[in-house]
């Protein structure tokens, strides 16, 4: 019986509707409520900050969240884990990008953005009014200037951005040789993860807190940064337009979150009926 569900956000829970709005569908909302009312715990696993969904779509969606792809984990409205990058680590990565057509995005645990070199082509992209709001403040300093003002500053996420796919891949490979686990979280960016930090490790932390075994967990996703949680959890549901590796790894392929939740509810009902026999 499934007791705990972890759902990805972008492209899974939140999708473009027929009007072109990036939103949570009525069907998904209805099935989330039915699932929660049946006693199943619903949580999020996302590359976005922990408060993105409730701030954007309503405080009724204040779920436990594996945020920043596992680097920041909240449960029971408290922070239970945070992966920290120091200024020194950020500077080390910035040096890797020297003379490259790339930028290092350093994100604080308050979701403030520091663009290490303040290259306008990357800052402008994040300031686009058509983007889904991420409630960020873009700091007006380079990384060196930030270090002078706030020498104790730390970051929850470091992202290598590059508009040239081949160069981006090469930079990710170089970062990997430095000991990081690069995870593609944008079409033009890799998030640098500490070894062993990913959505799967975040799921394990929440599951341990609630004493839920892995076989009583289901995961829903669509992107390559969902791969570790699909490898960890057998009961996995991929959206139809998922990354090929996710489609290959998933136990089930569904149209949307609502379909996956209906399947989980039905399987739970069947197991409850069998347990009565």
Give an account of the 3D structure.
The structure is a single chain. This protein has 277 residues and is α/β, with parallel strands linked by helices. The chain folds into 2 domains: 4-82 and 197-276, Rossmann fold, CATH 3.40.50; 85-193, Hypothetical Protein, Haloacid Dehalogenase-like Hydrolase, Chain: A, domain 2 (2-Layer Sandwich), CATH 3.30.1240. It contains 10 helices and 18 strands. It has helices at residues 26-37, 52-57, 87-96, 120-126, 143-149, 165-177, 199-210, 227-232, 244-249, 257-276; strands spanning 4-7, 15-16, 22-23, 41-45, 65-67, 72-75, 78-82, 85-86, 102-107, 112-115, 137-138, 154-155, 157-162, 181-186, 189-193, 217-221, 235-239, 252-254. The strands form 4 sheets. An 8-stranded mixed beta sheet has the order 7-6-5-4-1-16-17-18, sandwiched between helices.
């Amino acid at each position: 019986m499934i007791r705990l569900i972890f759902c990805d956000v972008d492209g899974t829970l939140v999708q473009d509707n027929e009007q072109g709005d990036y939103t949570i569908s009525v069907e998904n909302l209805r099935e989330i409520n039915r699932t929660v009312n049946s006693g199943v715990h619903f949580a999020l696993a996302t590359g976005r900050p922990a408060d993105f969904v409730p701030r954007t779509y309503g405080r009724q969606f204040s779920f436990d969240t594996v945020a920043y792809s596992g680097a920041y984990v909240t449960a029971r409205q408290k922070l239970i884990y945070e992966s920290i990058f120091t200024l020194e680590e950020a500077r080390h990565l910035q040096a890797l990008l020297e003379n490259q057509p790339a930028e290092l995005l350093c994100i604080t645990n308050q979701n403030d953005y520091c663009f290490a070199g303040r290259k306008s082509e990357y800052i402008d992209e994040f300031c686009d009014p058509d983007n889904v709001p991420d409630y960020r403040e873009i700091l007006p300093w380079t990384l060196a200037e930030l270090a002078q003002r706030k020498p104790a500053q730390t970051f929850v996420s470091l992202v290598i951005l590059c508009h040239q796919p081949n160069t981006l891949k090469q930079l990710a490979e170089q970062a990997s040789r430095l000991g990081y686990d690069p995870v593609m979280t944008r079409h033009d960016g890799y998030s640098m993860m500490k070894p062993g930090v990913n959505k799967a490790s975040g799921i394990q932390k929440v599951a341990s807190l609630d004493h839920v075994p892995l076989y009583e967990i289901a995961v829903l996703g669509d992107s390559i940064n969902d791969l570790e949680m699909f490898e960890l959890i057998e009961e996995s549901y991929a959206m139809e337009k998922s990354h090929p590796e996710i489609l290959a790894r998933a136990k089930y392929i569904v149209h949307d979150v609502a379909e996956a939740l209906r399947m989980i509810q039905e399987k739970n009902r069947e197991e409850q009926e069998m347990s009565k026999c």
